[in-house]
Amino acid sequence: PKDRTSRLLVLPVLILLAAGYVVPGVVLALLSLGHPADFHIQFDALTLANYRQFFVITYYLRVLGHTLLLG
């Protein structure tokens, strides 16, 4: 009936949204956990060292502060 048809019409849009937003976001998150010289995903080498370095170096913190202030 009508309710099922409307759900089926929404399905292609949801697939496009997932392909356009969710998948690239997950890939970027995984790449950000890897080693910057590799630029490919190695699940055995995922680390938070990149984020630790970001929050330790004061230059990065200043840039983040300015970005949030401007936003």
3D structure, described in words:
The protein is an all-alpha fold and about 70 residues long. Helices cover about 75% and strands about 0% of the residues. It has helices spanning about 1-30, 50-55, 60-70. The longest helix has about 30 residues, at about 1-30. The chain is elongated. The termini are far apart. The mean pLDDT is about 85.
Q: Compute the average pLDDT.
A: 83
Our measurement of the CA-to-CA distance between the termini, rounded to an integer number of angstroms, reads 47 Å
Structural class: mainly alpha
Strand content: under 5%
The tally of beta strands, per DSSP, is 0
**Helix proportion:** over 70%
Order of helices and strands: HHH
Sheet of most strands: none
Count of runs of 4 or more consecutive helical residues = 3
**Radius of gyration, rounded?**
19 Å
What is the molecular shape?
A: elongated
Low-confidence parts, pLDDT < 50 over ≥5 residues? none
Give the key terms.
mainly alpha; 73% helix; 3 helices
Summarize the structure.
The chain is an all-alpha fold. The chain contains three helices and no strands.
Q: Topology, please?
A:
Layout lengths: L1 H31 L16 H8 L1 H13 L1
